[in-house]
């Protein structure tokens, strides 16, 4: 898949998937990539949004050639197979399914604490948490950390995949939903 997108083995590919890219934190991610101009970073952005809105911003930040926009595809696994890490610096996100999908695929993840899916991440164990998605320096530091340490990437990716497998199955979801509904029913009966 990396060859399909013309990425070399030396490129370190960051992935962001979603619509409403401003809310997904793309502006701040582009700024962070600019701060890391010494690294061979490439950013793959998969979205239904019109990339022409963001391309001038990327060009202004000297990210020319580092950012590629792709349209969504039914084969989302191809995007995860291309990436070295998933970065989700959302300003606000009720859940953020691509974060969990990336974890399930064994990718190391950097996620904003403002994404609901961040509740599944234990910082430093199953991913890295970005406490302020508007802080491009913090985001750049986390990206540099994950880039610089191959052992950390492998550990985070493996732990993330195992964590999602244990905690995000349909059976587990049904169990949690049943427990919640039974708790609500018990509370109402006590009134």
State which percent range the strand residues make up.
5-15%
- CATH homologous superfamily assignment: Glycogen Phosphorylase B
- Quote the CATH topology: Rossmann fold
**Helix content class:** 40-55%
Number of domains: 1
What is the general shape? globular
Helical stretch tally: 7
* Largest sheet data: 6 strands, parallel
N- to C-terminal distance: 58 Å
CA-based gyration radius:
18 Å
Low-confidence stretches: none
Judging by the overall fold, what is the CATH architecture? 3-Layer(aba) Sandwich
> Could you give the order of the helices and strands?
EHEHEHEHEEHHH
Number of strands: 6
CATH class identity: Alpha Beta
What does this entry look like structurally?
The protein is of the alpha/beta class and 191 residues long. It has a single domain, classed as Glycogen Phosphorylase B (Rossmann fold), CATH 3.40.50. It has helices at 26-35, 55-60, 77-82, 97-104, 136-148, 150-167, 170-189, and strands at 12-17, 41-46, 67-70, 85-88, 109-112, 128-130. β4, α4 and β5 form a beta-alpha-beta unit.
């Amino acid at each position: 898949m990396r060859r399909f997108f013309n990425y070399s083995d030396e490129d370190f590919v960051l992935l962001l998937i979603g619509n409403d890219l401003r809310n997904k934190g793309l502006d701040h991610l582009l700024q962070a990539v600019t701060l890391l101009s010494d690294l061979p970073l490439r950013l793959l952005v998969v979205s239904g949004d019109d990339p022409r809105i963001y391309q001038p911003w990327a060009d202004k930040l000297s990210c020319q050639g580092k950012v590629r926009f792709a349209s969504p595809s039914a084969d989302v696994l191809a995007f995860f197979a291309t990436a070295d890490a998933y970065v989700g610096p959302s300003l606000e996100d009720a859940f953020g399914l691509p974060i969990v999908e990336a974890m399930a695929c064994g990718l190391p993840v950097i996620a904003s604490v403002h994404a609901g899916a961040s509740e599944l991440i234990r910082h430093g164990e199953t991913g890295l948490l970005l406490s302020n998605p508007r802080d491009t320096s913090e985001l750049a530091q986390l990206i540099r950390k994950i880039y610089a340490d191959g052992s950390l990437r492998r550990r985070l990716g493996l732990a993330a995949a195992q964590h999602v497998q244990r905690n995000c199955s349909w059976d587990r979801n049904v169990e949690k939903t049943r427990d919640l509904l039974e708790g609500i029913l018990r509370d109402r009966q006590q009134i």
